């Protein structure tokens, strides 16, 4: 009976039902969109790194021999392992039409899947002459994209060149995330066997590798060592590499950033809670009279509680599925749009979410809305339960004071204030529920307008271009094989002779060369890491130096040395990153007995655009910078880490062409330019803009909904009182004026609260947090308050006018009549 | 003539289910009269009072306050007329809970854009024994005190006419008699025309004139 009654009540008061459903939907949308977007962005970031690496799997065993073959089964059956794949590199494809590297290899299906080569059409090659290949290479070779098409390939195997005719059995999309475009052609096992009988293994040709996809991506290096040891392989002799995309980034979130995130999430949680609370709490108080009347006919407290509870349940049944679905859809819809504007566009079309993550988002949103609703109705149920029918009918209009000493309270502006402050506790909650969304929206707006291109560029690059190997840009200057990925002088000469260079300079870098020793270091050489650099004068900018007014004479005459350090947000040197004070002596010794003592003359801010290897040791790391001539005198085999240069005026597009040609001619070379960073900056900005606008929109809408709901409800509960006022002579115009005052008080107070809070939060948390981000210089934008005020005033006017018209449709007598 | 109605009608609903709350009521009220509108519950007496006070519009017929016909007036004009010429007292007191006694009383004056006549207000307060309760809010007053505040409010604008709908309905007998006595006093002191709706014969007998309403008709 109670359930039917609850349903009838909902049907009878459609406005209340719709408002409640809208509130729940909005909250569900807010949460599920936010979490979908945040989790999605995080996943995109991780996944794009993995895709850039070219492999899903975490470990690759190289140069497989019989020992590894014996261990494969054990590896496959190990609990840590999800799957393993096999690849044998057979040849380079060297058809004239191709302007990029194309590799021919045999891969089993697992390996192909791990390399993002899922077939779009066709089947994996079975017959000896069948192949599958990527769509870009099909197009480049001018082959008809259909199953059974003939594919003539010119192959290079070591020094041997051979032509083979294949048949296309399928194709897949090229992994465009790879830094260097590389086509793939996969043969059948039969062909690989035929290859073995015709050719012998010769360096990379015939090299076999096994990739291992672990179930868990945490602590991959440790897992790799454990796994290989468990299956009986000798870590000293087996060659394996760990996918750098999975290498743990052990950077911890700073306390201040964590605090900002927690506060931000808390505020959003409170906003979501308050909107539901407002709707239900106000609705229940508004209906208190009816519930009081039910008491007079014998309904118990428990039954009334059940009546209110069932109404909430029916509304939740409608609202939650809609809200969650819409929120998920919005998140999943906008996520690709956001990603496509960023450097994560390579994964924009990929399915980033696993079922468990979707379930988590759904569950959390549902639980939150459920808990919020229950909390919102619990309070009023308790209050109504205690009151007599008469008290229930006067619940909302109850004034808690006994007197006040003013005599001009009947003036409209004062009267309006007394009206809104009848119940101070409710007023405070209502002000908070309106001001919080305004606060968040104003901060989001300010962040939106705090993008600082100059700051961003100054931390990334000080020249128009910087050229190095792609390994350097992937933080693998010292490769897993222990080699230095230096750039060749030929590359630099080609650039310099292109007539686009205005000025430039070299940066040498020795990355923990064990032959270079700090003589006066007490620790043994194995216990510290030493990165020693040589800088041309072009690469030493004044603003890189931590200290002011450093005399660099000693640096250039070979007696001085600079130490690279990291800085805190407040500009002080981060403890543990500086090992020397100015004036300390550093004695460096290299092989062949070369030794020199230098005096430390200052510190370089590595966190700026100062180039470093990006690799450090587990214990102490020394980052020491010499003038390039001093470096070359000291180090027998100078390692050229990077070259930076500025472009001549008017040569910008030529420079870009030159660099594209350079990377084509030297496939292991890559570059970054100011333009690249500007583009990255703009994509970042677009991404943040999209999210901020979405957030601002939803939050502003929530604030408005709160405001309108609060106001309309406060009028509805005062229908009789308004009738009284009309009966004793309040004109409609005076009524509108009073209601406008009330609306503006709510808005004004909420506005003041949000403004004070936003100033306080900006000073204490948001500014330091944002300014620690390389592309933001935060400042509160006063213009946002003007926009907010304008919107508030307009909405207030419209709401008041509309509501007053509704009220005035009834005659005074009808308004005075009790329900 | 202060109030005059001519064949006043108020019907609700459509033909088959029509309720004739007032059916061609024609009455005349002179200045200074103290009148009781008496009748059973549902007889139409409150409806007639509301019509006379401009709180409701007739279905047919005319109402005059003085020489002015109000039956065709728009809501705003009625409101302005009401606050300057008519004081209303309700059975439920209908005080504004957020305003104190003084502010409730002077509210109609303020709404009329005038400054309260402080001496006059003080005299009302004194007469109605409310001087010590000026700053009190309605929730802290007894029923009788609240009704007295309602009376004071009705008189604040020095209206020509005071209309009271069951002013003793929520009071005990002693308090009820006190309220009627005060109204009589106001009538004698200020020569206001007072019309009271009541179902109580004893109260009606204290009035100068009684108009009986039966099934929407005035007898």
UniProtKB/TrEMBL annotation, chain A:
Broad class of where this protein is predominantly found: membrane
Residue stretches making up the ABC3 transporter permease C-terminal domain: 263-389, 696-809
Top-level taxon of the source organism: Bacteria
Cellular component terms (Gene Ontology): plasma membrane
InterPro entries reported in the protein's UniProt record: ABC3_permease_C, Macrolide_Exporter_MacB
Subcellular location: Cell membrane
Transmembrane listed as a keyword: yes
Keywords: Cell membrane, Membrane, Transmembrane, Transmembrane helix
Residues spanning the membrane: 21-41, 258-283, 304-330, 358-378, 427-448, 690-717, 738-764, 784-802
Membrane topology: Multi-pass membrane protein
Pfam family membership, one: FtsX
GO molecular function: transmembrane transporter activity
Family: Belongs to the ABC-4 integral membrane protein family.
Protein name: Putative ABC transport system permease protein
Organism listed in the record: Lachnotalea glycerini
Source organism phylogeny: Bacteria, Bacillati, Bacillota, Clostridia, Lachnospirales
TrEMBL record, chain B:
GO cellular component: a single term: membrane protein complex
MF terms (GO), sorted A to Z: ATP binding; ATP hydrolysis activity; transmembrane transporter activity
Keyword field contains Phosphoprotein: no
Protein keywords: ATP-binding, Nucleotide-binding, Transport
Top-level taxon of the source organism: Bacteria
InterPro entries in the record: AAA+_ATPase, ABC_transporter-like_ATP-bd, ABC_transporter-like_CS, MacB-like_ATP-bd, P-loop_NTPase
Pfam families according to UniProt: ABC_tran
PROSITE patterns, per database record: ABC_TRANSPORTER_1, ABC_TRANSPORTER_2
Domain ABC transporter per the UniProt entry, residue ranges: 3-219
Keyword Zinc among record annotations: no
Stated family: Belongs to the ABC transporter superfamily.
Protein name per UniProt: Putative ABC transport system ATP-binding protein
Lineage per the UniProt record: Bacteria, Bacillati, Bacillota, Clostridia, Lachnospirales
